Amino acid sequence: MIAAPEFQAPSRGGFADHDLMEVAMGPHHPSTHGVFRMNVVLDGETVVKLTPVFGYLHRNHEKIAEKNSYLASIPYTDRLDYICSMTNNWAYVLSVEKLVGLGVPERAEYIRVLVGELTRLFNHACLAGFLLQDMGALGTPLMYAFREREKILDLFEALSGSRMMCNYMRFGGCRCDLPDGWLEEAGKVVAGFDSFLDEFEALLSENEILRARSQGVGVLPRELAVNAGVTGPGLRASGVNYDIRKVDQYGIYNRFKFRVPLGARGDVFDRYMVRILEMRESLAILRQAVRDIPAGAILDPKAKLRNLRPKPGEAYGRIEAPKGELGFYLISDGGPAPWRYRIRPPSFVNLTVLEDMCLGHTIADVVIILGSVDIVLGEVDR
Amino acid sequence: MPTLEQIIARVAAAFPGARLEVVPNGSPSNQPSLLLEPGRAVEIAKFLRDDPELRFDYASNVTGVDWPERTVKERVKVRRVIEGVEKETEELAERKIPGCLEAVYHLYSMALGHGPLVIRLRTGNRADRVVLPSLTPVWRSCEFQEREIFDLFGIQFEGHPDLRRILMWDNFADHPMRKDYVAADAQEATP
Lengths: 382, 191
Prior knowledge:
The complex is a heterodimer.
Chain A (H helix, E strand, L loop, with lengths): L20 E5 L11 E7 L2 E8 L7 H5 L8 H5 L6 H16 L5 H29 L5 H21 L8 E2 L2 E2 L7 H24 L2 H7 L7 H6 L5 H5 L6 H4 L20 H25 L20 E9 L2 E9 L7 E5 L1 H5 L3 H5 L4 H11 L3 H5 L1
Antiparallel strand pairs in A: 1-2, 2-3, 4-5, 6-7, 7-8
Helix pairs in contact in A: 3-4, 4-5, 4-11, 4-14, 5-6, 6-11
Chain B lengths: L3 H11 L5 E4 L9 E4 L4 H10 L7 E10 L2 E13 L2 E13 L2 E9 L8 E6 L8 E3 L8 H11 L3 E3 L33
Parallel strand pairs in B: 2-7, 8-9
Antiparallel strand pairs in B: 1-2, 3-6, 4-5, 6-7
């Protein structure tokens, strides 16, 4: 049996004449999106304290990676945020490329942008579906989102042989070239996604219940968001213009024209809406990438995959993953395995402010506030 | 982005006498780091966050590194009397580097869009002098990540509001990310 962390009784100031109730939400609660527990202290229906409890999915991936070769860790990164394996691959190979000093051929950069933005599309679509499910729109919006996700997963399967655990990127490029006809198929999916978004928005974004449930709920102030290291759509919903694709311009993101949607109030509705608008911008990037992708090699000829022994040193590489800043910090001591392999997971750090967002709301709001943070426990617990 | 030398000059002007050491980085990533003395780390961190030209308002990645005691072999020149004649020869000498635990912070500026600045803090050893100041009062984003370092590496953060284990269970005894950690037999583990 795993011992529960010691519960510290909250201060009774102001509640002296009646009892508080502690509710353990999770780890087997459908709204926690995995094995995650929130110990919620309630005064009537109002949350007065919330303690997140992690670690149910902890397998110490970092320790395993410090015993493996650099190449052998790529398939492990698929399993961090198991919805977005392509962006996990990307963040890791980007860090190794920084550590070794490798370039990436142009075609491979375009392929990375293509699969990265497709990943962002279905991650945000699923999040919108899950969030609406948490609000009580059981099934339908989620199934609509999954229908679109399925088309993108078909593309990934044609490309990498696997639908979810793609294991596709390599240091200095990608594992294999696009199969014949893939770009045309991708173009069709992109065109269809636009009409899916129109339909989704017509059905849901103006919906009265959605607005009543989400506007003004779980407000994250701008200063707190920056100080607490919140990244990704959650940060931009609070009005901070910080998108690593624009700031670092890693890969070839400086070649694409796209805007960064910002929220004004930082509530659940803004976090939902920023994601919807971000999908539109991803579609714009995808159209430009499908149009401009050049022919050529997909792997740097200088790239060494097996028996890689980088010079002693360290590197931190980061990308704008769908959930926020995903970074890998690698230290090499000259050996075949990294001396230190650290993942900076966006979901984990974004949970820092969960309590601040939930205080004063009801337990039903806690569910949608957690849903709007967008976590995947494979990445939180590592 | 101000260079590391400019940042050091600014910090040194504000904190005369503070020990600021550059830790070189041999990789092409061009990310050298700045070693701070733990005693003044919190005030320097506040300065890095608030100084109008630096504004490192966002601590992105916070992690620990374990460095056990190492011996490095180096060639050193020694004068020896060989067959009655004093000569200068090269010899392999072993040098011991004492072990320590490190906390590494990657700082960025959301306001000015620059970074990363890598700062490091080192403990005295790996056994009983493992206390470092917590930077959570400066950057909230360190809260869970410092708890994780405490859990997996065993660094005690002084001034952390809620220093408990985060990934391992509470009555777990060891620190699994240390290099000398030996996993218990899965059959025998009694959590």
